[in-house]
Amino acid sequence: MDPFVRIPREDWAPLATWQTRPLSEAEVARLQGVVDKLDIPEIEAVYLPLARLLRLRIDAARKLARETAEFLGHERHRVPFVIGLAGSVAVGKSTAARVLGCLLERGRPALTVARVTTDGFLYPNAELERRGILRRKGFPESYDQRGLLGFVAALKSGEPRVTAPVYSHQHYDVVPGEELVLEQPDVAIIEGLNVLQSGTTGVFVSDFFDFSLYVDADIADLRAWYVARFERLRRTAFQDPDDHFHRFAHLTDDEARAVALSYWTEINEVNLRENILGTRERADLILEKGPDHTIREVRLRKA
Fold first, then answer.
1. Which of 292, 293, 296, 216 has the alpha carbon at shortest distance from 45?
2. What is the pTM of this model?
3. How confident is the model at residue 117 (pLDDT cuts 50, 70, 90)?
4. Residue-number span of the structural domain to which 112 is assigned
C-alpha cells in the first residue's frame, strides 16, 4: 500500500546525467547551511539526479500547458513551475532549496529560478504578541495563510509582478516595507515548515504546486542538529549586538545547550509532531537523511 518507490542512495546516484556541471568547492561552501553537511559527493549522488528529474517535470509541464492552451484556443501565459519544499526546523530545507536552484540554473542558463521562504508570511511579532502566540511562531496559526495563498495563486495565474514580504532572522521579525519581487520566473521554489499543511478555506498552498519535496530525518537527529546550530550561532551571529538573540551570546556551553533543548522540546518538536510530520506523505518526493546529514534514501511517489 506504500504509494512511494523507495530508492537507496546507491541506486539513486547513477540516475544523474552530466549535462549539469557539478559545483565547485567554493560554491558548495556558499550554499551550505550552519551545521548541515554538504559536499561535492553529496551533490553528485543526490542533487544532480534530483535536478535531472525536475528538469523532466518542468519540460513535461510546459508541453502540457502549451497543448492545453491550444486545445482551449486560449493564449498561453508564462506561468512558473512551482516547487514546494517542506520539513522540520534544522533539517536543511534552505540548503536543499539553494542547491536545487543553483543546479537548475547551471543546467540551463536561460532558466530563471526564484526562491521564497514562507517565513515572510509570519505575522509580525507585534501581532503575534497581541494574539498571545509569540511562543507559537512557526505553528499554523502564526502565519498569514490568506496572504500566502494569495501570493501562490497570483504566481500560478501568470501575474507579471508578484511580491512577498521579507523576514529577517537577525531581527526575528518581518521587515516592514521590504518586499521580494518575482517577475514571472521559470521556476519558483517555495520553502517552509507549512507548505504542505492543509488550510482553513478548503484551498491548500500545495494545490498550486507542480512538484513537492519533504526533507525527512529522525527526531533524535533533528534535536541534535538544532542544538548544534544554536551553539554555532551563539559563537557567531548572536555575537552581533543587533541580533535578536544577542542575550544568549555569553551563556556557558551548558547553559546554551539547556536553552536550545528547551526551545526544541517546548516549541519545535511539538510543532513537528502536531503539524509538520503528518504532511510528509503528501509530498511527491521525500529525501531521507541519516545522522550525518547525508541523504540515505529517496522515496518517489509512484506515477
1. 296
2. 0.94
3. very high
4. 4-301
